[in-house]
Write a sequence for this structure.
């Protein structure tokens, strides 16, 4: 503490150590938040259902997604990444996950939304197993905090079924 | 800065930073704003810098009391031993 630079150095080191501690504590407070998000998904229309030239099934659908993810946001949340996946079982694969739609939610105000998108990413099966297939729509989300570790969870919405036959335009 | 001043400066720096950190965390958490926490803490750090880094007169209130110069004459420095003094002229 005898010189200007020695005091400046000591202060910088100590203040940054405390800053790191504050960030760690802010991250810990996220554990007190028990979110209760809600979501509903509907298939408004099956626009196209066909077999591709390589034999794989492809579906094009219009969705109606409404969700309230506001309870995921805390003071330490930077953004939330949310995506909707179709999940089903086939003889070849015990779990197929096909991402259909996603979105980045930057603020709490935008976490309550209702959208009617077409599937953003193609719904293609590894094979020809989609006719009459029962499947779940699963809403996955990843909470990205300002400091600390990421959280991920999901909401499974069961009871969807694809048509029994292909449609041709 | 004298000895007492250095001790006070170090303690003041540590206490101020810890207090501002706690205040910043509490206000940030209550207001639900991470940015507010950062601003309060940044303000606290600036204030701590201004308080403890410059050599304020406040830190110089306990100057060391040196002995009177007349004491030197009463207790002369011990003379350097001959073995050292011999080497120097040998170099030249």
């Amino acid at each position: 503490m005898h010189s200007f630079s020695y005091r400046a150095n000591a202060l910088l080191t100590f203040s940054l150590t405390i800053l790191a501690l504050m960030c760690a504590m802010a991250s810990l407070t996220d554990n007190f938040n028990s979110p209760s998000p809600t979501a509903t998904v509907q298939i408004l229309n099956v626009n196209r259902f066909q077999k591709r030239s390589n034999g794989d099934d492809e579906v094009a659908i219009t969705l109606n997604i409404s969700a309230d993810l506001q309870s995921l946001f805390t003071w330490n949340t930077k953004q939330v990444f949310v995506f909707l996946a179709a999940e089903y079982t086939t003889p070849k694969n015990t779990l197929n996950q096909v991402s259909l739609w996603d979105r980045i939610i930057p603020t709490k105000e935008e976490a309550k939304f209702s959208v009617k998108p077409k599937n953003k990413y193609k719904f293609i099966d590894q094979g020809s197993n989609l006719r009459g297939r029962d499947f779940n729509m699963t809403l996955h989300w990843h909470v990205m905090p300002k400091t600390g570790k990421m959280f991920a969870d999901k909401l499974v919405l069961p009871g969807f079924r694809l048509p029994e036959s292909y449609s041709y335009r | 800065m004298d000895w007492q001043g250095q001790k006070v400066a170090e303690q003041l720096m540590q206490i101020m930073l810890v207090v501002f950190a706690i205040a910043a965390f509490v206000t940030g958490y209550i207001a639900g704003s991470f940015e507010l926490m950062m601003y309060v803490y940044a303000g606290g750090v600036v204030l701590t810098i201004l308080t403890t880094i410059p050599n304020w007169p406040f830190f110089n209130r306990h100057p060391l009391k040196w002995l009177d110069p007349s004491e030197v004459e009463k207790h002369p420095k011990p003379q350097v031993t001959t073995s050292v003094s011999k080497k120097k002229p040998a170099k030249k």
In short: DSSP finds four helices and no strands in chain B. Chain B touches chain A through 27 residues (CB under 8 Å). The radius of gyration of chain B is 26 Å. Residues 59 and 81 of chain B are 42 Å apart (CA to CA).
